[in-house]
Design brief:
The protein is 42% helix and 9% strand. It is α/β, with parallel strands linked by helices. It has a 7-stranded mixed sheet.
Length: 373
């Protein structure tokens, strides 16, 4: 879809505004007939922040998808396994309630997949319903009648953390999906000197692929220089590759004075991926050690590449291309090789040691953990 932003007008903007109003956000009256003005942008940013998305005020695929999903409540529609999968807050509530009762839906990501179907079947058998894996009025009524523990740490998070602690492996033969963020259509951030994120990420991703292959891993690029698949399509390919790890490469943007690095993992205010968090923290450590980045942060993010991939996944932003000094680094092949080596070190540490000696600590959803070495 075309990204919608301040200054746009029309039916698409009106649809966005009505969905936001339905979620109890307030927009200035003079904008309500389809004009994307300052108050609409302010509300979009508030919505994005609440949903764990980059609060950039732009309505792209991730923000639009979550606007649609936020409108569903459990019981609004009949849910079952299909392609494309049902997505929405109703699915997320279903997963939370089933996990709270001990039926394993896997990650509480709001996507009705195979694990959710199996959990529904098990629940229906346990309450004496016809086990058809269809979540209709009867199954919803049974779920709401039985008190489940939806407060506190998600059981899905606990299970993933336990599995990570038992994980040991080798980088040799490890399948790594490498995603160069953005592309020729959605070009991403741009530096003052003209460096474009969608082009620079390809160079960084290629350097990482070369470094991983040199160490015996099996890396796969999720797009070529002239390709720009949607984020959900990239996630689907990574899943079909049965990748062990996914690394998405981006470049930060914003205030020209801002420098540093950000590494994101799947997470919302309700849940997160412990494995993704641990990998993100290791990447932060290696970028500080190998590349000399002074300010690095691990943070939660709910974009498609982190939410829809089934393996530990991170989004790495090794610098801010909008900063003139960082932009100059991006054009330096030796810097790109150092970044690639740091990320490869992190992937190797992760797959060979799992959680390691130090378990990932619980991050406040709004917190950015700054570390320096």
């Amino acid at each position: 879809m075309r990204t919608i932003r301040q200054g746009d007008a029309g039916e698409a903007v009106r649809d966005i505004q009505h969905r936001l109003l339905g979620l109890s956000y307030r927009i200035d009256a003079d904008e309500l007939e389809g004009r994307f003005g300052p108050s609409t942008e302010r509300v979009v940013r508030a919505f994005q922040q609440a949903r764990g998305l980059p609060a950039d005020g732009l309505v792209g695929p991730d923000t639009w998808g979550q606007l649609v999903e936020a409108g569903y409540r459990l019981g609004d529609r009949v849910l079952y396994l299909r392609s494309p999968a049902f997505r929405g807050d109703d699915v997320r509530e279903l997963q939370q309630r089933l996990n709270g009762l001990g039926f394993d839906t896997g990650r509480e990501d709001g996507i009705f997949g195979n694990a959710t179907q199996v959990a529904v079947l098990e629940f229906q058998r346990n309450v004496g319903e016809q086990p058809d894996a269809i979540v209709g009025a009867g199954t919803v009524e049974s779920l709401l009648r039985i008190r489940s523990s939806v407060e506190g740490p998600s059981r899905a998070v606990v299970r993933e953390a336990e599995a990570m602690r038992r994980m040991t492996g080798s980088l040799a033969g490890c399948r790594v999906a490498v995603d160069p963020g953005h592309g020729p259509d959605e070009r991403g951030n741009a530096g003052p000197g003209g460096v474009v994120e969608g082009e620079a990420t390809v160079l960084l991703a290629q350097a990482l692929v070369e470094e991983l292959a040199r160490r015996g891993a099996v890396p796969t690029l999720l797009r070529g220089p002239d390709e720009d698949p949607a984020p959900s399509e990239r996630a689907r390919v990574a899943n079909e590759l049965h990748a062990d790890v996914c690394v998405s490469i981006h470049l930060g943007g914003g205030d020209p004075e801002t420098r540093g690095a950000i590494c994101s993992f799947f997470g919302t205010t309700q849940t997160h991926s412990p494995a993704g968090q641990r990998l993100a923290e290791i990447v932060c450590e290696e970028l500080a050690e190998r590349v000399g980045v002074r300010d690095v942060a691990a943070q939660r993010l709910a974009v498609a590449m982190l939410r829809e991939t089934r393996m530990p996944a991170v989004q790495v932003e090794p610098c801010f291309v909008t900063n003139p000094d960082d932009e100059a680094l991006v054009t330096d092949p030796s810097w790109r090789r150092r970044v690639a080596a740091a990320v490869a070190d992190a992937v190797q540490r992760f797959v060979e040691g799992g959680a390691g000696e130090d378990e990932p600590r619980e991050l406040d959803p709004a917190e950015e953990r700054a570390t320096s070495r």
